[in-house]
Amino acid sequence: MKFNKVVIFGVGLIGGSFALALRRANAAGEVVGFGRSPATLELARQLGIIDRIGRDVSAEVKDADLVLLATPVGQMGELMARIAPNLCPHALVTDGGSTKGDVVAAAYANMGGRVAQFIPAHPIAGAELSGAAAARADLYVGKKVVLTPLPENSADSVARVRRAWELCGAVVSELTAKQHDEVFAAVSHLPHLLSFALVHDLAQRDNKEQLLSFAASGFRDFTRIAASSPEMWRDICMANRDALLDELGSYMQELETIHEALACGDAEKLQEIFSLAREVRGNWTQQ
Amino acid sequence: MKFNKVVIFGVGLIGGSFALALRRANAAGEVVGFGRSPATLELARQLGIIDRIGRDVSAEVKDADLVLLATPVGQMGELMARIAPNLCPHALVTDGGSTKGDVVAAAYANMGGRVAQFIPAHPIAGAELSGAAAARADLYVGKKVVLTPLPENSADSVARVRRAWELCGAVVSELTAKQHDEVFAAVSHLPHLLSFALVHDLAQRDNKEQLLSFAASGFRDFTRIAASSPEMWRDICMANRDALLDELGSYMQELETIHEALACGDAEKLQEIFSLAREVRGNWTQQ
Q1: What is the ipTM of this complex?
Q2: Which among B193, B199, B217 has CB closest to A280?
Q3: In this complex, which of B233, B250, B265 lies closest to A274 when CB atoms are compared?
Q4: Burial (0-12, 13-18, 19+ Cβ within 10 Å), B208
Q5: Which CATH class is domain A3-175?
Q6: Homologous superfamily, domain A179-283
Q7: Which sequence spans correspond to the domains of chain B?
Q8: pTM
Q9: pLDDT band at residue A1, thresholds of 50, 70 and 90?
């Protein structure tokens, strides 16, 4: 499978790595990039991520075979509205957003009759780094990509977008957008929120320097994700607000239970909680 | 400085590494080990951690220069009562417990007039591994050890115990037991509790297999400490209950604030919290 023309909106870690990976698989003809920062686009061109910097969205999209939206999720709706009227009937659009309910809603609101050509995707590739300079052809190798197909998508369209991500080396699975957002609220968005919360709590103390000077490897790992982008996580939290509120509520209940056990000196209850957690965490291996 | 006879109670990671490190520094003459498990003691002897397996606590302690209590904290009070009457006036006792208020209370309750010879210590050496087989001569190199001296300790006794830990390669500092327990409630005990809580919360779901199958590197790091020993962390939580309840209460308040911001759609507040956390976490480096 080869896409003769690929258009990438946002040539940072996610978009740039997608382009490099498709090129490496010999699956991309010309790659054209769009983005907000001329400097980033020029860097992407110099790094061989894209062949050309796009100037005119409508014109470039007209003969595109594959379009990737790898901008912040908040900018996707406007982009969808601009590209939808210009898409060829065979063209496919996918994205790299971390939340799916909001992206799907934006697609329905902005793509009109072209919504069947949009196959939403969430590539799960850790992103401590960002920007075109961090893009790598092997970023997606062995990583999970979740597709959340729409009822309007044809089986063939879904299969071709699946294949594109597989050519990047990804392991592709499918969920509904709702399932996706619930799953990631639990295993990703909530942990990020909790990690930010711990550091924020300590950051407000008069003795924060002393506290941090005694923090060790447990703290280091627990708070690694608190060094993530505040803007990106603000957007993810807002976009997945309902599912995240459910998860946060459930976790606060869990802490109430633990607080009570601790306050009552119920050592057995604590051990029971810790033991189940250890068993489940010990048996878990990242896939 | 050389300790002609060192007696170690508990020849696992902490006690075994202390013995190996003192030997490597040529600071230990004979090393005698006690412990609950004959198999562990025999292994420690075979690994060269100890010279001999002790049989009679009273007899072995009589001519000891340095005694390390590296058993679970809950067993230390009974041990202190057995060794105190037999200690030479020049002998020093230190420990490897993760909490200090309870160890200090046990010392006052069980060591009588010998309490001045006990200089409490907390070596901060990550312990995913345990047991004699995990002991290493370099475990403490560059690691922090916190002493929480008692008013009864002479300056010379504190200096000699400090030197013993320094000979193991540790960076030694001093806090009061109360300060110690407050600091570690915040930067170690609370994060462990929160990590156990998250995994326990997910472990009770019907779809836990699905959830865990999509968990990635953020989850992996956040929950690494949830694979810690349930018994050890039950004991630490119970021993440091008051300080930990304060920290847990403060954290639950923090979550209330975040819950409210999220429920009200206050994106600015979320970004403010995340930004401060990121700044503080980004500037922190493990010392």
Answers
A1: 0.90
A2: B199
A3: B233
A4: middle
A5: alpha beta
A6: 6-phosphogluconate dehydrogenase C-terminal like domain (1.10.3660.10)
A7: 3-174, 179-283
A8: 0.90
A9: confident
